[in-house]
Specification:
By secondary structure, the protein is an alpha+beta fold. The chain is about 30% helix and about 25% strand.
């Protein structure tokens, strides 16, 4: 996968891939807060990935999704300013079958984004 990065102005940075463009910006005082920051998108990718796995679990079993939801809360270490804990809360539909409770947790745990954090790729930076 190739991602092309461009700079539309200020400190905004865009990423274009597969015909989509993702716009990012920084909060003031550096940016105009016209879009989510790259780090916020990183966190959102974890939460939406978990949501995708929960959604597909229900869809594949014809479980109604009304009431299905995901909330991700993160806690930063005040000294290092890094995320120390990411807690994913999964809200199940009211009619969710009891027999699938542990199985949906296993499904959500398969999130591809989370797996890449747990086993990170090698990063290389080249000058061209």
């Amino acid at each position: 996968m190739n991602i092309e990065v461009s700079f539309p102005g200020g400190v905004a940075v865009d990423a274009t891939f597969h015909g989509h463009t993702v716009h990012t910006d920084q909060p003031p005082p550096l940016g105009e807060d016209s879009a989510a920051s790259p780090f916020d998108l990183f966190l959102a990718s974890i939460a939406t990935c978990a949501g995708f796995y929960a959604l597909r679990f229900c869809q594949q079993r014809n479980i109604p999704i009304e009431g299905l939801g995901v909330t991700m809360k993160s806690e930063k270490n005040p000294e290092s300013k890094r995320i120390e804990t990411a807690q994913i809360e999964l809200r199940l539909p009211q009619a969710f079958p009891e027999k699938y409770r542990s199985a949906i947790l296993l499904a959500v745990d398969q999130c591809t984004v989370k797996k890449h954090i747990m086993e990170p790729p090698k990063f290389e930076i080249d000058l061209v």
